[in-house]
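Morning, I've got a small favour to ask if you have a moment. I owe you a coffee for this, so here goes:

…
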Amino acid sequence: MTSNALFSEKQRFNQVWIWLVLAGSNATFLYGLYKQLVLHTPFGDNPMSDTALIISASLMLLFSVLIRWVSLQTIINAQGIYVRFYPFQRSYRAFPWEAVTTIQVRTYDPIGEYGGWGYRIGFGEVGKAYNVAGNQGIQLILEDQSRFLIGTQKPTEAAEVLLTLGKLAAI
């Protein structure tokens, strides 16, 4: 599938604010571990047990690694559009051209329409979305009139490929 890709994109959660929150949370837990396990001073007014603190710090670090590992992968080829949220989806979700009635590359409101980023189910009739950053996406309307939006950081390139394939009316 990737060998005949006309468009390919791999996006990650790279927003500075996400990494500042995660770094701050991890630093707090690591400081708590140091203070409670090395200095033998309780961390906080109502300290966790050592075991609970170790587990919490480990889970926070694992969550940070998971966020770094997550990627939204999109492929467009002559057969259709393929998308997956790795590692949650091992295989791509296929949108063959026969199942798509309308395609539009558009600006959207991630919070207003979908409540944020990630795998989202939108408010009202906006449908589902896979997005990790920004406000540009490939909007699909399927034969059953359901909607699916795929976020992209390369809207111009995606539009050019879709136009070349005859799947997009105009850029």
